[in-house]
Amino acid sequence: MAISDRVYKNMEASSWIRRMFETGALLKQQYGADNVYDFSLGNPDVRPGDAFQQALEESVKEEDVNKHGYMPNAGYPHVREAIARQITKEHGVEIPWQNIIMTCGAGGALNVMLKTLLNPGDEVIVPAPYFVEYRFYAENHGGTLIPISTTHNFSLYIEEFEKNISEKTKVIILNSPNNPTGKVYSHKELDALAELVKRKEKEIGRPIYIISDEPYREIVFDGIEVPSVYRYFDNSIVITSYSKTLSIPGERIGWLAVYPNADAVQDLINGAVLCNRVLGFVNAPALMQRVISKLQGQTAELSLYKKRRDLFCDMLQRAGYTFTKPEGSFYLFPQAPGGDDIRIVEELQKERILAVPGRGFGTPGYFRLSFCVNEKTIKNAENGFKTVIDRI
Q1: Is residue 158 helix, strand or coil?
Q2: Buried b vs exposed e over 194-210: b needs ≥16 C-beta within 10 Å?
Q3: Number of domains observed in the structure of the chain
Q4: Per-residue pLDDT for the chain (392 aa), expressed as one digit of tens each?
């Protein structure tokens, strides 16, 4: 075989999302794009907005002989300073700018942090359902992903953490608001987890690091608050990107920020700077760093997602589907009627509706729908959703 066994195995494991993309392209070619209802990809369709366009144009026109040159691997100091001020405001704790490293999106930041932290055989615990790439990211750096179950409404199941934290546990990844469920972990849940982690750290005699993956932090509904992990875990690193909040996923710009109270904090920062370089990112894109420095605290028109969520939830409820209403992000994760997530996805395809089976996110028996699509697509898919559930 030409490619490595691990890559071949990972290609098979991630084939559902890839298959949905390919199926969607064929259906759109056959029936026309307006007659295919594609809810498979989390690709933001909301415009970045005028503020982004203005900041982009200003950054391009800036007169600086070194604006396309090398920079510190952690990023421009003035950009990190702007972000530090915003983090301090949002999280209510002071984060020094030196603790921030600019990265090629949240995916880049996760790989940088996992490479910095993991020894071969170390375990990374993640509540399921979880973003499918986490397994690959952990394996990239010699780690093993340990998915654990959540409760019926996707809340943290503390007893499962209790059973699975061991001497091999090095990292816990939290993703709130969650992809694919839209769940926001509450103060109560984080408080209970923090108490458990502190006890386990004493038992195993070393820190367990919490990586909080937060690209959907600003996409929340109904007055829900996203608690700051910094308030609960000293050994915490927040990771995010501007892909969803500014609607610029293709620009690959994000950051990681290490909490000042973390064990060996300077080693963590220095290690992450090195890994940013040796993983081949070298540094985050220079132009986008300058652009986002002008946009701290600003977002695209995220209120559109609430309108779409409510429209989609009402439609699915009328059709007879069972689901937990998402508190954030732009995904729904309904139960598969009859319990077979593969079958529901295949039946929906017959109605030109594209969804992703829950087993792709570590949770069979559910399926994911993305509502970062226009309202017309959601409305026009209603008959198809109703036809499928009646047929099943």
Answers
A1: helix
A2: bebbeebbeeeeebbbb
A3: 2
A4: 688 877 777 776 666 666 777 787 788 888 887 889 999 988 999 999 899 999 999 999 998 878 889 999 999 999 999 999 999 999 999 999 999 999 999 999 999 999 999 999 999 999 999 999 999 999 999 999 999 999 999 999 999 999 999 999 999 999 999 999 999 999 999 999 999 999 999 999 999 999 999 999 999 999 999 999 999 999 999 999 999 999 999 999 999 999 999 999 999 999 999 999 999 999 999 999 999 999 999 999 999 999 999 999 999 999 999 999 999 999 999 999 999 999 999 999 999 999 999 999 999 999 999 999 999 999 999 999 999 999 98
For residues 139 and 256, state if they share a domain.
yes
Query: Domain span at residue 145?
Result: 50-293
Check if the beta carbon of residue 242 is closer than 8 Å to that of residue 107: no
CA atoms within 13 A on the CB side of 271: 14
CA distance 319 to 390: 9
The CATH number given to whatever domain includes residue 349 is: 3.90.1150.10
Domain shared by 240 and 115, yes or no: yes
* H-helix or E-strand spanning residue 103: strand 100-103
Collect all residues with Cβ–Cβ distance below 8 Å to 381 and sequence separation of at least 6. 37, 39, 315, 351, 353
Q: What is the DSSP letter of 324?
A: P
- Among residues 172, 83, 94, the alpha carbon closest in space to that of 130 is found at 172
Q: What tokens appear for 1 in the block?
A: 């075989």
Identify the three-state secondary structure at position 377.
helix
The rounded distance, in Å, linking the Cα atoms of 302 and 244 is: 9
Residue 200 CA from chain centroid, whole number:
26
CA dist., res. 146 & res. 202, Å (int): 21
Instruction: Give the DSSP H or E segment for 356.
Output: strand 356-357
Helix locations, the chain, DSSP H: 5-13, 15-31, 50-61, 77-91, 105-117, 133-140, 158-164, 187-204, 265-278, 286-293, 303-319, 341-350, 375-380, 382-391
The pTM assigned to this predicted structure is 0.95
Q: Examine the domain organization and report whether 17 and 96 are in the same domain.
A: no
To 5 degrees, how large is the angle CA 146–CA 149–CA 152? Answer: 165
Give 259's contacts (C-beta < 8 A, 6+ positions apart). Answer: 93, 95, 99, 230, 233, 234, 235, 236, 237, 238, 265
